[in-house]
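Problem 12. The chain below contains 147 residues. Write out its predicted structure in token notation.
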Amino acid sequence: MNKVILLGRLTRDPEMKNTTTGKAVTRFSLAVDRRFKNKDGQKEADFINIVVWGKQAEFAAQYLTKGSQISLSGRLEARSYDAQDGQRRYITEVVADEINFVSSGQKGSSAGSQQTSAPQSANNNNMSVMGLDEDFHLMADDDDIPF
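Solution.
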């Protein structure tokens, strides 16, 4: 089984391109915190290359930005190619199948969890979930929960 689940923040804005056949492909890097601190007591992160294809790629390029916190699931893929200098290059990346918003990357705006299959409103502080009433809005923080 090849299944990867990650939670992290985008280190740069996604870059979308189209293949020669016209299929959209978007790439970005995700900073994922390690569970433990190093010997100096500092948190460390891994920087993982992510690839998204098709409609998900178009959505990621349009709505994700540097600093956005997302979760994703997908598969790990390793490949190699011959570079222009004649050297063999090896790449390991995650091919994402599903992306969920955790926060927008803007200070003070938490979006809860939202799948990329639902369009995000232009205002990140007031995102509504597709398929629900327009009056439904995700709460900004746990202090707003009435119990």
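Discussion. Residues 107-142 have pLDDT under 50 and may be disordered. Students who got a different answer should revisit the alignment rule from Section 12.3.
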